[in-house]
Specification:
The chain is of the alpha+beta class. It is 22% helix and 32% strand. The strands form two sheets. Strands 1, 2, 3, 4, 6, 7, 8, 9 and 10 form a nine-stranded mixed beta sheet that branches. Strands 5-11 form a two-stranded antiparallel sheet. A hairpin with a 4-residue loop joins strand 8 and strand 9. It is globular and about 30 Å long. The termini are far apart.
Length: 143
């Protein structure tokens, strides 16, 4: 319980591995809310914002924002309802993640492996819902 409170209050330090049981998703590259506390911004990828735009200086995939978000939800687990915040509730297995450090605010940039779908960043790029962002890819290798 104390560890969850510590993780919820701050970014997971770069290089540290941690568990994430997904509970909610905002868009195709996160944040993914974890039951353990962290909010994850998937490392090495960029997806469209929910209004359909791409942020200046970010790679811009062709995939629709809603389709990208919904695909991420499918990779993580089973879709639930829409939360008052606009996040999509999700129930899925616990992933193992490796922090790449802060991603703005209280978000942790991380590469995550799901027992359901494997490497989530790799799957989003492979399936065409996100663009690889070389600046943040950090030599990551897809299986």
């Amino acid at each position: 319980m104390i560890a969850a409170l510590i993780l919820a209050a701050s970014v997971v330090p770069a290089g540290q591995s941690f568990d994430c049981t997904p509970t909610a998703v905002w868009d195709g590259d996160g944040p993914i809310w974890c039951a353990e506390g962290p909010h994850i911004r998937l490392s090495g990828i960029a997806a469209r914002e929910m209004d359909g735009t791409c942020s200046p200086g970010h790679p811009c995939p062709a995939a629709d924002a809603i389709a990208a978000r919904d695909h991420l939800v499918t990779l993580l687990g089973k879709r639930g309802g829409v939360r008052p915040t606009g996040h999509i509730s999700v129930t899925g297995p616990t992933m193992r993640c490796r922090s790449a450090g802060g991603a703005g605010g209280k978000r942790t940039a991380a590469f995550c492996i799901s027992p359901r779908s494997g490497d989530i960043s790799c799957a989003m790029v492979r399936d065409g819902y996100a663009a690889r962002w070389d600046r943040y890819w950090q030599g990551h290798r897809c299986p």
